[in-house]
Amino acid sequence: MVLWKPKETPLTSVRYLLEVGLCSLCGSCIAACSWGAAYFDFGRPSQVFLEDKLCVNCSRCLIVCPQAMLWVRPDLYRVAAKPVSVLHARSKDERISSIAQDGGTITSMVVSALEKKIIDAAILAGTMGRWTPKPTLALTPRDALECAKSKYFYIPSLLKLGRDADAERIMIVGLPCQIRAVERLAELGVGMTHKVTYKLGLLCSHNVDYESMTMKLMMQRGINADRIVKMDIKGKLLLHDVDNKVYEIPLSTYEKLVRPSCHQCPEFLSSFSDINVGSRGALNGWNTVLVMNERGEKLFNEVADALETKQAEERVIHEVYKTDKRKKERAAEFFRDFYGSEVGGSFLDNETLRVISRGRT
Ligand SMILES: Cc1cc2nc3c(=O)[nH]c(=O)nc-3n(C[C@H](O)[C@H](O)[C@H](O)COP(=O)(O)OP(=O)(O)OC[C@H]3O[C@@H](n4cnc5c(N)ncnc54)[C@H](O)[C@@H]3O)c2cc1C
Ligand code: SF4
Ligand code: SF4
Ligand code: SF4
């Protein structure tokens, strides 16, 4: 990947975004390309590939790209989405909490929604041998269990939306860039997007690609990816191995590998999801849950019996929104430094500050 300082807006082609590191591998361009010109290669899972011979220059890939979208509608991030309620939750099911990332709230919600037939499928980010990304259409609770845990690298799960499948009501679990891409895919009526009934967002500070994680952060330090069973970020990047040994890598080392796509990303929490889930502000083994709208509230009430919950303190929403504000400020700074553009200034206005000073609404 060649990184250089662009002088103009990146709205020329997806190829350009890929070349300058502005891709966060959400998978939506792959779903949107009806000609098979944009594709994912499981043998080289750090990026999207484009096949010139198949490309008809229709620009669908660019239209659905959540990174290009920042230029088209920067105003969308100006008004901070206000949660309907904020709480802490964790799974009541030990089978889930023992294998999940934090409280297992996401996996519990997916499993419960599948068991109660509230949804027919969920699009999740799984892995196979050596942590290879495995975009997954989970049709059973077992499929969902196999996708538990955070992978701190890109997984293009949205490519699963491109093809039709025997599922009418689909839940998406994704990072904020993926959730915002779903909006664009829906506008184009791609594949199964009209069947998306619920969107669950994960709080996200930054991310790296598969190769950076496995080669630069693991292999170059003599860490065998096959023996790593869990990765986490708690002040440091923590890699837990099968014998309970924990490798600690300074966050600054991880951050050096973060692509420009994540530096320009203005969302810590997703403005477009029905529910956002993370660990920020929660005790170990718990999640912070921000229910964002009525649809999210309805879903949460329907699966609540699978979860133990407690009210979040006022400081938690302050913490989450302050981090979101910081991310928007950094994104605006990035737009200035990288593109020489003030477009990123639109990511932040007084509305966000008002939410922070008001606390829970
Ligand atoms: C790259 C990344 C950065 C994050 N940054 C933060 C942060 O800064 N602050 C914070 O509070 N929380 C962050 N999170 C969220 C946090 O790590 C947990 O995912 C969240 O608390 C849910 O926990 P859980 O126990 O409910 O998850 P689980 O029940 O274990 O479920 C995890 C779900 O996450 C999905 N998933 C895993 N990896 C990925 C991926 N790479 N891309 C898309 N989906 C994925 C899987 O489909 C799975 O369904 C981040 C997550 C990721 C993947
Ligand atoms: S321009 Fe059209 S054909 Fe070419 S990669 Fe993008 S979506 Fe596919
Ligand atoms: S961010 Fe998503 S849509 Fe944009 S180039 Fe990367 S994979 Fe394709
Ligand atoms: S920081 Fe933004 S662009 Fe990067 S993975 Fe997270 S949500 Fe996607």
Summary, kept brief:
The chain is 32% helix and 20% strand. It is α+β, with helices and mostly antiparallel strands.
How many DSSP-defined strands?
A: 13
* Proportion of beta-strand residues: 15-25%
Helix content: 25-40%
Span between N and C termini?
44 Å
Global morphology: globular
Number of domains: 1
Which residue ranges are poorly predicted, with pLDDT under 50 across at least 5 consecutive positions?
A: 355-361
| Helix-strand category | alpha+beta
Q: Calculate the mean pLDDT score and round it.
A: 91
User: Which assembly state applies to the chains in this document?
Assistant: single chain
* H and E order: HHEEHHEHHEEHEHEHEEEHHEEHEHH
Chemical compounds bound to the protein:
flavin-adenine dinucleotide, iron/sulfur cluster
Biggest sheet strand order reads 5-4-6-7-11-12-3-13
Compute the CA-based radius of gyration: 19 Å
Largest sheet: 8 strands, mixed
Task: Describe the 3D structure.
The chain is α+β, with helices and mostly antiparallel strands and 361 residues long. The chain has one domain. Helices cover 32% and strands 20% of the residues. It has an 8-stranded mixed β-sheet. Helix 6 packs across helix 12 and helix 13 runs antiparallel to helix 14. The site of one iron/sulfur cluster has 15 residues, from helix 1 and helix 2. One iron/sulfur cluster binds next to helix 3.
